[in-house]
Amino acid sequence: MIEWEDLRKQARKLENEIDLKLVSFSKLGTGTVNTYKNNESDMEPLLSTEHVFDSVAVEIEQLLSKLAAVNEKLGEIASSEQASGGGAAMLHTLQRHRDILQDYTQEFRKTQQNYRARRERENLLHSVKKDIDSYKNSSGLNRRMDLYMKENKHIRNSERMVDDQISIAVETREHLVSQRLSMKRIQTRIHDLGSRFPVVNSLVQRINLRKRRDSLIIGLVVGICTFLMLLYLFH
């Protein structure tokens, strides 16, 4: 029958096209699923692999639908021939076309499901990685803030210590000035007495010598303390 043969040719042509498409489809499905790329600002989706995969999937679905329609027409012809007492060979041929259609459909669905599962896994890993990077960035910011706060606290403590040392130095200076004035008054009185009594004058000279020595010692102690204080502060 001419119609039967034409439909068989269409079925074989569609099967060959589907077979070629499934080979490409399988390669796309087993390839690397990379739906994202690294950018300085954020992660942007790539349309290359995913878009091609979806396009091929649509083409294969259309071809499978056409092959199913051809098989339906072949089945109608085979049924009519069987009703007239023949058509056993047609039924065998029809069953073979139906088995091929079923195998292609199963292979297509399996590849599609595997690709979708891999894509979901990649998206999940990308989301987890993004969360980890965000957590790392926030943790680093918190650590820097803690360091700044500690440094600021250390600076305030240092300023407070400097103020305390300056206050002590001012009080010490005022005390020394008061002692100096008292010593001057005592020295004046002793000088007046020494001018009247030679023995007292000799005693005054010895007192002056001791006073100079004590002044040198006090000055040396004050200088050492001041030097150590400045060294500690600027260190």
Describe this protein's structure:
With 235 residues, this protein is mainly alpha-helical. The protein contains four helices and two strands. The protein has helices spanning 2-30, 48-83, 88-196, 198-234, and strands spanning 36-38, 43-45. It has a two-stranded antiparallel sheet. Helix 1 runs parallel beside helix 3 (88-196) and helix 2 runs antiparallel to helix 3. The termini are far apart. The model is unreliable at 32-47 (pLDDT under 50).
Question: What is the CA-based Rg, rounded?
Answer: 52 Å
Number of alpha- plus pi-helical segments: 4
Structural class by helix and strand composition: mainly alpha
User: What is the residue-averaged pLDDT?
Assistant: 77
Q: Helix fraction?
A: over 70%
Low-pLDDT residue spans: 32-47
String of helices and strands:
HEEHHH
The N- and C-terminal alpha carbons lie at a distance of 107 Å
What gross morphology would you assign? rod-shaped
Oligomer: single chain
Strand order within the widest beta sheet: 1-2
Q: Beta-sheet strand percentage?
A: under 5%
| Main beta-sheet annotation | 2 strands, antiparallel
How many E strands?
A: 2
Topology:
Elements: H1 2-30, E1 36-38, E2 43-45, H2 48-83, H3 88-196, H4 198-234
Sum up the structure in keywords:
single chain; 235 residues; mainly alpha; two-stranded antiparallel ribbon; 4 helices; 90% helix
